[in-house]
């Protein structure tokens, strides 16, 4: 790969979409949803690393993100696909003991009505911590299965992150590794495409998506069967974003 271009990114999204759709249909063999999402995550990592390596070293920007650096976990709302919400939910059910899971669900239940009608700008200024953040350490409690858009978000300037946190102004993002962010964004688009027109495809606001996924032990089976499990209309930001994504899915899967 010599450069990352818009045609390449669109082909990337379409390729991921075809593979995910084929896997969900059983055309590419049997694979659990957890394994499928993990495979998509690993694929995104590999493509992002290749894209970054293709940039001349003098122009290459490497993120300064590290464990405990959590400004972005307070000022950014996160969008996820249903498949990601279900993967995170499955991970939480195995990584937390019953009391820990009860406490997490209580945090989510408390946050959900607070954020439901907030705009992206209001979310940033409120600086509400992600419920999946361990505030004592500043680390993500689901880091191995964190969403694609969290994986792609990065910064090459810690000072810019701290200023953004203090001001609540996310209109000017910190400088970052553009290739890394773009690859994860378009792989995310591929997961949306992979759900097809017959399933909830998102994007969904993370807190409300997890609220649904954790409340229903049958959510994965119902979603795979094509039932309407997730409600994008639960949040203002999803209502504002979902129509354009649905148009994208319709156009690409017709």
Number of domains: 1
Radius of gyration: 18 Å
Biggest sheet strand line-up = 1-4
Proportion of beta-strand residues: under 5%
The class by helix and strand makeup works out as mainly alpha
Unreliable spans are none
Task: Explain how this protein is built.
- By secondary structure, this protein is mostly helical.
- It has one domain.
- The protein is 59% helix and 3% strand.
- The protein has twelve helices and four strands.
- It has a two-stranded antiparallel sheet with strand order 1-4.
- Strand 2 (133-134) and strand 3 (139-140) form a beta hairpin.
- Helix 1 (6-24) runs parallel beside helix 9.
- The longest helix is centred in the first third of the chain and has 21 residues, at 33-53.
- The chain is globular, with a radius of gyration of 18 Å.
- The mean pLDDT is 94.
How would you summarize this macromolecular structure in one to three sentences?
The chain is built from 12 helices and 4 strands; from the N terminus they run αααβαααββαααβααα. It has about 250 residues and is mainly alpha-helical.
Main attributes?
single chain; mainly alpha; two-stranded antiparallel sheet; two-stranded antiparallel ribbon; globular
Topology:
Elements lengths: L5 H19 L8 H21 L18 H4 L3 E2 L1 H14 L2 H18 L4 H7 L6 E2 L4 E2 L7 H5 L5 H10 L10 H18 L8 E2 H10 L3 H6 L11 H18 L1
Antiparallel strand pairs: 1-4, 2-3
Helix pairs in contact: 1-9, 2-4, 2-9, 4-10, 5-10
């Amino acid at each position: 790969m010599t450069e990352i271009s818009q045609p390449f990114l669109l082909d990337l999204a379409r390729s991921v979409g075809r593979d995910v759709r084929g896997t969900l249909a059983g055309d590419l063999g049997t694979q659990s949803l957890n394994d499928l999402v993990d495979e998509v995550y690993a694929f995104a990592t590999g493509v992002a690393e290749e894209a970054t390596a293709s940039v001349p070293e003098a122009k290459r920007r490497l993120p300064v993100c590290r464990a405990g650096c959590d400004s972005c976990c307070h000022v950014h709302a996160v969008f996820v696909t249903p498949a990601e919400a279900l993967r995170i939910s499955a991970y939480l059910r195995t990584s937390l003991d019953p009391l820990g899971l009860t406490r997490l669900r209580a945090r989510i239940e408390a946050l959900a009505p607070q954020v439901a009608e907030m705009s992206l700008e209001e979310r940033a200024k409120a600086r509400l911590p992600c419920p999946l953040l361990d505030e004592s350490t500043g680390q993500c409690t689901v880091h191995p299965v964190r969403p694609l858009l969290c994986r792609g978000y990065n910064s090459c300037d810690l000072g810019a992150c701290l200023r953004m946190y203090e001001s609540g102004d996310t209109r000017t993002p910190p400088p970052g590794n553009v290739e890394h962010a773009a690859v994860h964004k378009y792989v995310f688009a591929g997961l949306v495409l992979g759900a097809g027109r017959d399933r909830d495809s998102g994007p969904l606001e993370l807190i409300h998506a997890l609220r649904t996924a954790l409340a229903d032990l049958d959510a994965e089976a119902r979603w795979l069967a094509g039932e309407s499990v997730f409600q994008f209309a639960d949040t203002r930001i999803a209502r504002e974003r979902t129509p354009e994504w649905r148009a994208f899915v319709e156009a690409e899967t017709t």
